[in-house]
Amino acid sequence: MAILQQLGDITVQRIIEHEVPVYLPTDMFDEATPEALEPYRSWLEPKALCPTSGCLVMPVVSYLVKTKHHCILIDTCCGCDKSYADPPSWHQRRNKLWLTNLETAGTHPNEIDFVFCTHLHSDHCGWNTIFVDGRWIPTFPNAKYIFARDEYQAMEDEGHQIFIDNLLPIMEAKQAILVDLDYALDDQVWLEPTIGHSIGHVAIHLKSGGARAVMCGDLIHSPVQLAEPDWSCNSDYDLAMSTKTRKDFLNTHCDTDTLILTSHFPSPSVGHIISNGDIYDFKYGS
Ligand SMILES: [Zn+2]
Predict the structure, then answer these.
(1) For residues 221 and 231, is the Cβ–Cβ distance under 8 A?
(2) How far is the CA of 78 from the centre of ligand 1 (A)?
């Protein structure tokens, strides 16, 4: 379901693809042993940690942003028919619920002006393309896709399947724009370099009037990292950099009015970072 947030004259709607238990905590964070998690279990379960499977519950979401001038999509989830190595549930998905949810939010793919990706991992750029008549084509035919140059370059250098299926078709359609990590679309939408999870990871800031929001991508994956900000995801490109980026981000936005739009926190996925004694906490909602 799309959840509407009003941010000055900008609207923000979360578009969800799915929300299921996906990884064992130690698959995500080496430190997250059952003993280490025990003090947090009471508030992680059941929404962020499934008591039955013991796995972290991590939705995969996009944000649909409408400013006075532009219709913008931030991140595009896993997509359909994509070949992803991990986790198995993201491989060759057939479920098009995400597209339905976008249209239920009142937006047809033709209406998207810009697609931003916080980074170019499988669950953030999947719906960039769809498979039609034997080839990948842009899902959003009228959009410019804004990719951080460093992130795009790294995926191209790797020759990653994600590059071939989700990125190259956008470039070939002349719909990709490669930008610096501090690119600004205008005075309402701009990027902030938040390197660590990936080489060109960015947070995406929104501002209207006095209201602010930021889509943080995968600089933080799970609410457990509010209590343990030193826990970096095992797959992070640079674990130490990721920790520094996350701590700086938490510190900057703690106890402020900035609405945090997360990628993988349980529904409703948005809220505010607040202090709670020596640790951070998250107040869900707008
Ligand atoms: Zn992710």
Answers:
(1) no
(2) 9
Question: pLDDT per residue over 126-175, tens digit each?
Answer: 999 999 999 999 999 999 999 999 999 999 999 889 999 999 999 999 99
Overall domain count for the chain: 1
* Tokens at 253, concatenated: 């936005």
Q: Is the pLDDT of residue 280 over 70?
A: yes
Q: Find where tokens 């520094």 sit.
A: 244
Q: Which domain holds residue 72?
A: 3-284
Average pLDDT, the chain: 95
What pTM does this model have?
0.96
The CA 59 to ligand 1 mean position distance, Å, reads 9
CA of 60 to the centre of ligand 1 (A): 7
Q: Which residues contact 23 (CB under 8 A, 6 or more apart)?
A: 55, 56, 58, 87
200 C-alpha to ligand 1 centroid (Å): 14
**CA 77 to centroid of ligand 1, rounded, Å:** 8
Asked whether the predicted pLDDT for residue 277 surpasses 70, the reply is: yes
- For ligand 1, the distance from its centroid to the CA atom of residue 41, given in whole angstroms, is 22
Cα separation, 104 vs 108, whole angstroms:
9
pLDDT in tens, 219-246: 999 999 999 999 999 999 999 999 999 9
**C-alpha span between 23 and 88 (Å, rounded):** 11
Give the CATH number, domain containing residue 138. Answer: 3.60.15.10
Rg (CA), the chain: 18
Identify the band that residue 3 occupies on the pLDDT scale cut at 50, 70 and 90.
low
Measured in Å, residue 130 CA sits from the centre of ligand 1 at: 19
Cα dist from 50 to 56, 86, 195, 232, whole Å: 6, 19, 29, 20
Taking the centre of ligand 1 as the mean of its atom positions, its distance from the CA of residue 123, in whole angstroms, is 5
Cα-to-centroid distance, 272 and ligand 1 (Å) = 19
